[in-house]
Automatic annotation (TrEMBL):
Protein name per its UniProtKB record: N-acetylmuramoyl-L-alanine amidase
Entry-linked SUPFAM superfamilies: N-acetylmuramoyl-L-alanine amidase-like
Gene3D superfamilies found in the cross-reference section: Peptidoglycan recognition protein-like
Major enzyme class: hydrolase
Organism the protein comes from: Bacillus gobiensis
N-acetylmuramoyl-L-alanine amidase domain sequence ranges: 12-148
Organism placement in taxonomy: Bacteria, Bacillati, Bacillota, Bacilli, Bacillales
EC numbers for this chain: 3.5.1.28
Molecular functions per Gene Ontology: N-acetylmuramoyl-L-alanine amidase activity
Recorded superkingdom: Bacteria
Keywords: Cell wall biogenesis/degradation, Hydrolase
Catalytic activity from the UniProt record: Hydrolyzes the link between N-acetylmuramoyl residues and L-amino acid residues in certain cell-wall glycopeptides
GO biological process: cell wall organization; peptidoglycan catabolic process; peptidoglycan turnover
């Protein structure tokens, strides 16, 4: 399982073009909340629309699609929310990777790709799943409930998700 790459053209606010302000400190787990769009559809959306939001990767049942370089800022958590600073000492947009789980297709396949990719990112950036993956819900509890809003209807708790990522992470041989 390897990520596919299709970079959003620099257009408006969906792609900052700005580098992260330092090394990646954490990963923010999201879900799209969109029942009718796969990873390719989200890529096309961010290329067509000028929107003040984005994420680094979108995952569905057939692919892992990185639409922004992992060393570039994405707009995936509101700056005025303080929890990312409290937990990690910096803003998510400046120091975190944003990963979206798509709601289309086969959930089990998409979930397995999501788990694998989170483990991959933890290995790539020297992070621990139980310490450095955070739910968007935790960072913005007043208005967000993702990714739990898509995991829970499928019987997946946050704790199980982190356990699944940790199992893949621990089983990894270290070769990347």
């Amino acid at each position: 399982m390897c990520p596919s790459f299709a970079t959003v053209r620099r257009k408006g606010k969906s792609r900052s073009g700005l580098p992260l302000t330092g090394k990646v400190l954490f990963i923010v787990a999201h879900e799209t909340g969109n029942n009718s769009a796969d990873a390719d559809a989200h890529f096309k959306y961010f290329n067509r629309h000028v929107t003040a939001s984005s994420a680094h990767a979108f995952i569905d049942d057939t692919k892992i699609l990185e639409i922004l370089p992992l060393n570039e800022k994405a707009w995936h958590v509101q700056y005025q929310k303080a929890m990312d600073n409290i937990l990690f000492g910096d803003d998510a947009n400046d120091r975190a990777i944003g990963v979206e789980l798509c709601r289309t297709g086969n959930f089990a396949k998409a979930y397995n790709r999501y788990v694998w990719y989170m483990s991959y990112l933890c290995r790539k950036f020297g992070l621990k799943p139980n310490k450095h993956i955070v739910s968007h819900k935790v960072l913005d509890p007043e208005s967000r409930y993702d990714p739990e809003s898509w995991l829970q209807p499928h019987g997946i708790t946050w704790e199980r998700f982190i356990s699944d990522v940790t199992a893949v992470y621990n089983a990894w041989t270290g070769a990347m």
